[in-house]
Amino acid sequence: MSGAPRVLLAPDKFKGSLAASGVADAVGRGIRSVLPGVEVVALPVADGGDGTLDAALAAGFDRVPVTVAGPTGEPVATAYARRGSVAVVEMADACGLVRLPGDIPAPLTASSAGLGEVVRAALDAGCDELVLGIGGSASTDGGAGMLAALGVRLLDDEGNALPAGGGALADLASVDLSGLHPAAEKARFVVACDVDNPLLGPKGAAAVYGPQKGASPDEVASLDDALERLADVVASALGADHRAEAGAGAAGGVGFAALALLDATLRPGIDLMLDLVGFDAHVPGSTLVVTGEGALDAQSLHGKAPVGVARRAVAAGVPVVAVCGHRALGAEELRAAGIGAAYALLDLEPDVETCIREPAPLLARLGEQIAHEHLS
Known about the structure:
Rossmann fold, six-stranded mixed β-sheet
């Protein structure tokens, strides 16, 4: 290969093991050990869930710290990422599953208030375009907590504010929109959303995602009824009904609240994030793009980061390989997704716990393999 190759590293996180930036660092280190003159550009990515904030920061956004309520009300130190008047907010880091104290689920009482508090801080600071990554949520409250944090009052039949959580929505009698943060009415909201679930029913927020958040069958039924109550009251207040819209059931119904009251646009998470970090501008001139995530499996084919990266890179005429912890896709499936080859930690180390605990040295070895096989 004539001239120094240029490699664009655009992995997602290895969930529960290593942040996307760490994956890129390790793979880059391995490639450089074989080809010292290689140009390596690291551009970690995310799909709207946990890691979204880190991806924005790695792309040059500024970190703005803020302390908010976690999913069960405890203070959480989080941040939003800012560039100019654009703010990137990650629900997972503010009030998602990873923030549950002791990893104990709270299906009826967990709240999206922390998300709303981060949004409020960004609005107060003058941001007028807000990108909301809502993956990894811990709550099924229809976005009620987020709305309350933005000044919307959700009241019972005696005019009292409802307590936190989706379960309390069963007592919702009215919604007072007069206190909605004035900047929220003028700001542009874009939500990273990879699901098309409606708010209610067998494909809705409670039925599909409630069990993942600890809800029993009875609690799922109660939450679905409570969300229906929310949809009825909001429809009455607005004169428009958003419960059946694709994505309304995302993040326990945060999608519904964003659509109905923030006039949000929902976009596939990886496409939104790739635009945000300027991925397309980095692809031209690259010899190879390396992407990846913890598990390359059937779910990867439905809107996950590696396939989104591959689609953009292949469209620009640049070949793609992937790194992962575990590979469950065959060569033909990978090629159909635009990925020429995939390298797994388990190919080098059969012990799963070691792969999870110490991924960086293994990723560096994969980087060496990629350099030998694709760049030499």
